[in-house]
Amino acid sequence: MGPDVAVLPRHPLFRGMAAVDWDALLDQAERRNVPVGTDLVRAGAPATHLFLILGGEIELTPPGEPPLRLHCGDCVGEDAVLATTPHSASARVVADALVAAVNGANLNSYFDTHFNASVTALAELAANLRNQVRQITELKLQSTTERLAHFLASLTECAAGPVRLRLRVEKRELASQLGMDPATLSRAFAKLRKLGVDATQRDLVVIDDVAVLRHLGGLAEPLC
pTM here? Predict the structure, then answer.
């Protein structure tokens, strides 16, 4: 494994693990380069691996909820793996990603025999769940126009200035992901047009100044 995988033991989920146990687990972890557009996991599919993001960006979509963006250091599938249940959300790569795939069976075997480590892991799962619920709640409280602005601004690392974006999904699917119907999405795009957003082409969105969308969508901190 490369040096980038050294981020694994520092993840809160694994803080209770002894260093010597990490050597064995890392020997079995698989580093994967995952291209944009790949479905890393699908809701309802068996959870065989936990994925720690070492680079790139992944969009997590709980059924019927707005999508969440995950970045370097975040985990995908930890709740399903540790509970030995199917995945409750889908995860798609939206920027070429590097992930470390940790075998779920091996991880659960370790936690079964190491009480303190398992307590630490459960505490992290609870905190992560609270954080995701908070993020989803905040998104649902936004107006449809604010939600769309948040989504578009999160597609780029630029904090200000003109941006051209390619939508990776059909607008009908995008509407579903954002928790609205296609007609509502069209109206939201129409309102953003007054703020310098041109979405008249099928999959191309041209933004005069992404800082305007960041402000409207509540993205206070620049991504770069």
Answer: 0.55
